[in-house]
Amino acid sequence: MAEHDYDVLVIGAGPGGYVAAIRAAQLGLRTACAESRETLGGTCLNVGCIPSKALLHASEMYEEAAHGALAKFGIDFQGVTLDLDRMHAEKAKAVKELTGGIEFLFKKNKVEWLKGRASFQDKNTVSVGDRTVTAKNIVIATGSSVTPLPGVEIDQKVVVDSTGALALPKVPEHLVVIGGGVIGLELGSVWRRLGAKVTVVEYLDQILPGFDGEVRKEANKIFKKQGFELRLSTKVTGVTVQGDKASVQVEPAQGGEGETLQADAVLVAIGRRPNIDGLNLEAAGVELTKRGQVGIDHDFRTNVPGIWAIGDVAPGLMLAHKAEDEGIAVAENIAGQTGIVNHDVIPSVVYTHPEVAGVGLTEEVAREKGEIKVGKFPFMANSRAKTNRDTDGLVKVIADAKSDRVLGVWMIGSLAGTMIAQAAQAMEFGATSEDIAYTCHAHPTHSEALKEAAMAVTGKPIHI
Ligand code: FAD
Ligand code: NAI
């Protein structure tokens, strides 16, 4: 008889947890995954990446059709109407298919789904709903949830978080978004395209913290042109709801005279925090970082042998692909292999139009670390972008001044989210800017802008 019920128990079936469970099972380990939601896939598949991208895609098509963006190509629409219920239904279908797909993969790989909330009893024992199970290894992959804003109550009707903003039953006349980060701009884009006036209130002096400064500035310019009202260096001091309206009190971040914005909906999107409530980590002796994440080493081990942590609940970028890669690596480490994630090369993408993407160091950080060279190329000079009449944005390559090794790539452009994969791969292989510049890129493609930006690092692009 085995000493424990399972070799591996994963807590949480988001992109981190479900991938860890599948890989562990593939490696021959007896694996279970505890998940309290009705469906698998975590935040990403249920109320994050997938439904947001479904609405971004659909709203982009609506805007193109409804606001005459296609007229210049000779494509005219008459009487375009919006059926928001159908748009939501199609989004729900995508979510259902994908979450159902994970259930299928669990069955195929013989991962047992333990339905219910997990709570540690001791370092090898966990209660899940009304069951108690033991495991030799336990992976904490409980993800994150919305950071609340003190004094602002989320009722999911007038004042919503991202989950509520993915399901608004009608287009608000005026949506006030608190937080000019990824969620604010993506979901703000959805509702602006569908007809809302959108005001983004951002505490810092620029949107999209963590992105390259020049790209942030360029994004700001483009979003303003699209009709976003961006209130930078501004803080929200309170929100009062009366019936189906809200009053949002704002004032300059540094203090000063305040004003009140009237809104039909308020989206709170000021970041996310790790899910540790109810896990009873004390019973296992697992320690947290100062920021409330589960502390881990390079191999994803917590301070307690046999307990591991990955994804949003652990330090690092809160991104699905980071969680997935950590899921594979932790399972391989548990199986005695060498699972590694290179946290220096994790791409970030904002799925607005144009998309904003980056990988590696920003110009600001790279400059602090040493001497660098920077090459840029605007989509205005890229033949495919010009042909498509879609020339907003640029590509920027940052390389070490001496070795020419690429340290970071940042871009804003309609296909930036897809193009950034090439940059990440080049960096993972230790490429120099010259390596990218001398790689043959198909013509006419947006990717040629990356090649030319790399050529510009040493001052020799062809098309500008
Ligand atoms: P999660 O996906 O949060 O999954 C954790 C799971 O654990 C949850 O299902 C939860 O129910 C379960 N759980 C928690 N506690 C317990 C417990 N005690 N017992 C049992 N189960 C428990 N990232 C991207 O890379 N690209 C995107 O386009 C993108 N879009 C996003 C859009 C929105 C609106 C949001 C909110 C997030 C988005 N993200 C995106 C971020 C992405 O969703 C997260 O980084 C990712 O889901 C983290 O994966 P995870 O496995 O760590 O945790
Ligand atoms: P974020 O960290 O991206 O942005 C939050 C913004 O709110 C910041 O700009 C911050 O300065 C601002 N802010 C904080 N407190 C404020 C206050 N009191 N008043 C006004 N502004 C304030 O967080 P966001 O947008 O909530 O997203 C959470 C996480 O979800 C992201 O960090 C990202 O990792 C993930 N995500 C990823 C997506 C993607 O990859 N495309 C899409 C959506 C979410």
TrEMBL record:
Cysteine-cysteine disulfides: C44-C49
EC number in record: 1.8.1.4
Domain of life the protein comes from: Bacteria
NCBIfam families registered for this protein in UniProt: lipoamide_DH (TIGR01350)
Details of cofactor binding: Binds 1 FAD per subunit.
Family (UniProt): Belongs to the class-I pyridine nucleotide-disulfide oxidoreductase family.
Organism encoding this protein: Sphingomonas lenta
InterPro entries associated with the record: Class-I_Pyr_Nuc-Dis_Oxidored, FAD/NAD-bd_sf, FAD/NAD-binding_dom, FAD/NAD-linked_Rdtase_dimer_sf, Lipoamide_DH, Pyr_nuc-diS_OxRdtase, Pyr_nucl-diS_OxRdtase_dimer, Pyr_OxRdtase_I_AS
Pfam family, one: Pyr_redox_dim
Biological processes, Gene Ontology terms: 2-oxoglutarate metabolic process
GO cellular component: oxoglutarate dehydrogenase complex
Protein name: Dihydrolipoyl dehydrogenase
Catalytic activity: N(6)-[(R)-dihydrolipoyl]-L-lysyl-[protein] + NAD(+) = N(6)-[(R)-lipoyl]-L-lysyl-[protein] + NADH + H(+)
The protein's required cofactors: FAD
Catalytic site positions: H443
Domain Pyridine nucleotide-disulphide oxidoreductase dimerisation: 346-454
Record-level Gene Ontology MF annotations: dihydrolipoyl dehydrogenase (NADH) activity; flavin adenine dinucleotide binding
